[in-house]
Design a protein that fits this description.
Elements: H1 7-10, H2 13-24, H3 31-40, H4 50-60, E1 63-66, E2 69-72, H5 74-81, H6 92-103, H7 109-116, E3 120-122, E4 127-131, H8 139-151, E5 154-157, E6 160-163, H9 168-176, H10 183-214, H11 218-223, E7 225-226, E8 238-240, E9 252-258, E10 265-267, H12 270-279, E11 283-288, E12 301-304, H13 306-312, E13 316-319, E14 324-327, E15 333-338, E16 341-346
Helix pairs in contact: 2-3, 5-6
Length: about 350
């Protein structure tokens, strides 16, 4: 296992990369030349063990070493570009790059997996938290916490360690992927889910058009559209209308969830949750159970304002690490219909 570096080592990365680019013009990028170049640059009286520093630069993927020759990598160039002023001290943009490309998806992600196993989701703030009073961390875990705090991944508030909001989605993805499935299995699953999701979204667009036409809102029915193909970060899939006005601006935003089973069970991303919290009663989740593209007789389960109603009821649970929402007991649903058109709603 790779040893976690001291935070002071990170501040030498800029000196290494700047020195490497300077040497590139002389075409003398040997290890010894690079070390001598780094030593010749005075930086606040700091003296580093450059053999160790170069090794970490290699492990982090910032440089490549072949035989005795050193070259900068694509990631290393991005790291250097994030330091336009060419300061030797690491800046916030570079800390974020290390976090995203090395901590969560690179050479040090096992440290993130190991630490975040102790964290749980605060269902009020939708942030990952760790109570220090309830969890005694080992010295090794304390070192990881210190390292992550330096990078800005974690914040400490009294006896609570909290993941910075902008990294919550990365924690979710990291822990959701910790099942250990193969890359081929994951890719196959993603393709199947995308196909099922697209079919379900098309079905809901048609369902909404029918619902609005039954209400006599023909103009609004023509304006219902699938938004997920236009804006993947919208936080919902379909723009529609409640049908109680004649307005031409959408006032019903629908996230479509399809399952081939009978129970209510779906994944809900951080982005979708945040959009749902902002839009409140205008945001709906439509769930298609036992969905098949060839079967057009489906009756969706509708959850209005899910950010409020899912947490409010004890017959649905949200698993913190994977955001898997599933039934714990029979979900009470109310039946609604417009002539032959039928759907179900989660009771408040």
């Amino acid at each position: 296992m790779i040893n976690l570096p001291e935070t002071t080592i990170l501040n030498f990365f800029n000196k290494v990369l700047i020195s490497l680019t300077d040497l590139a013009s002389t075409e003398d990028c040997s290890i010894n030349s690079l070390i001598n170049q780094c030593k010749s640059i005075v930086s606040g009286g700091q003296i580093g063990n450059y053999e160790s520093i170069l090794n970490y630069c290699k492990i982090f993927g910032l440089i490549k070493i072949r035989n005795d020759s050193v070259t900068i990598s694509v990631l290393g160039q991005k790291f250097l570009d994030a330091n336009r002023e060419q300061y030797f001290e690491i800046n916030e943009a570079q800390k974020q790059l290390i976090t995203e490309k090395i901590i969560f998806t690179g050479a040090l992600n096992h440290y993130a997996r190991e630490l975040f196993e102790f964290f749980s989701l605060n269902q009020s703030s939708f942030l990952y938290e760790l109570s220090i009073s309830d969890n005694l961390l080992s010295n090794d875990h304390e070192k990881i916490v210190h390292f992550f705090k330096y990078l800005g991944i974690l914040q400490k508030h009294d006896f609570i360690i909290r993941v910075e909001k902008k990294y919550s989605e990365l924690v979710y993805q990291l822990m959701a992927d910790s099942k250990g499935i193969s890359e081929q299995q994951l890719e196959k699953s993603l393709i199947e889910n995308r196909k099922l999701g697209a079919q379900a979204e098309h079905a809901i667009v048609e369902f909404e058009k029918q619902r609005l036409k039954k209400l006599g809102k023909f103009a609004q029915a023509e304006l219902v559209k699938r938004i997920s193909t236009i804006n993947v970060s919208a936080g919902y899939d379909v723009e529609s209308f409640n049908g109680n006005t004649d307005g031409i601006f959408p006032d019903r935003f629908i996230e479509v969830k399809a399952t081939q089973g009978t129970e209510i069970r779906f994944y809900w991303s951080f982005n979708e949750i945040n959009v749902a919290k902002r839009k409140k009663d205008s945001y709906w989740i439509y769930i298609l159970r036992e969905f098949k593209e060839s079967d057009l007789s489906f009756n969706p389960v509708m959850i209005q304002n899910p950010a409020h109603n899912i947490n409010k009821n004890d017959y649905l649970t949200m698993e913190a690490q994977t955001f898997l929402i599933k039934e714990t007991s029979k979900v009470p649903l109310s039946t609604h219909s417009l002539e032959e058109l039928k759907w179900f709603k989660l009771k408040k």
